[in-house]
Write a structure and sequence with these properties.
The protein is α/β, with parallel strands linked by helices. Helices cover 53% and strands 11% of the residues. The protein has 7 helices and 7 strands; from the N terminus they run αββαααβββββααα. The chain is globular, with a radius of gyration of 17 Å.
Length: 235
């Protein structure tokens, strides 16, 4: 059984988060859920599950079995599931990092997953919607906003928040689908590089700045011993 969603925070503490998600939805107006996330305090529980609970309860294995049953190649099915989960953890928040230099908490215990009628992932949500910004950002001091001292600190913090979730997802897919660590971490790198490449074009921001932020994020992951650089695009 799902644990209760955390109590609803004061509405003014979600203003910065709401505005951020409006901008993320505008990146792809025809598919507004691609990058945005939901505040779980505003959602019902139908088809929502917390990532930490889902890993423990075997939801990843169930997703893989459903995809494998519908596809001719089980290896491709494993990558489809991995890519969707990695996008929920990494790609969504990375879009905000690339476009604005801001982030929410994508940690294992904070992230929720929403599935469609076919069992695929079509949205993600957060229990805590606090936005992290860099010191000096115009949002500094607003309710629901926490300032980090510098840009490298944000990358270090994100890498630390990603690692537990990504490691457990990788282990689950290795058990049920045989997806190797080399390929999994290559998919993580592709998610970072994909956001750094495509989001500037969608948001009208600097492609050079997006690429720089993407490379800095990969470096922070590598500094934690995660093999994202040397495995990029290895199949």
């Amino acid at each position: 059984m799902l644990e209760p969603v955390t109590m609803c925070p004061p509405r003014d503490s979600r203003i910065a988060f709401g505005r951020a998600c409006n901008r993320l939805r505008a990146l792809q107006p025809d598919h507004p859920r691609v990058y945005a996330v939901a505040a779980m305090s505003e959602q019902g529980k139908r088809r929502w599950w917390r990532l930490a609970d889902g890993i423990r309860e075997g939801r990843i294995e169930l997703m893989y079995r459903r995809h494998a049953a519908e596809m001719s190649n089980a290896d491709i099915a494993a990558e489809v599931v991995a890519t969707a989960l990695i996008h929920a953890v990494v790609g969504r928040v990375m879009a905000m990092v690339v476009a604005e230099g801001r982030a929410w908490d994508p940690g294992l215990e904070n992230l929720w997953i929403h599935t469609d009628n076919d069992g695929g992932i079509d949205w993600a949500g957060l229990a805590d919607t606090t936005i992290r910004v860099l010191d000096g950002d115009e949002l500094t001091g607003e309710p629901g906003v926490v300032a980090l001292p510098c840009e490298p600190a944000m990358y270090v913090w994100l890498a630390a928040r990603w690692e537990p979730a990504l490691t457990l997802v990788q282990e689950a897919l290795a058990r049920c689908a045989g997806l190797g660590a080399r390929r999994f971490w290559a998919l993580v790198a592709e998610s970072v590089v994909g956001a750094a490449t495509y989001v500037p074009a969608l948001s009208g921001t600097s492609s050079a700045e997006g690429a720089r932020r993407g490379q800095a994020m990969l470096a922070a992951l590598e500094d934690r011993g995660l093999p994202v650089r040397r495995t990029c695009f290895v199949r």
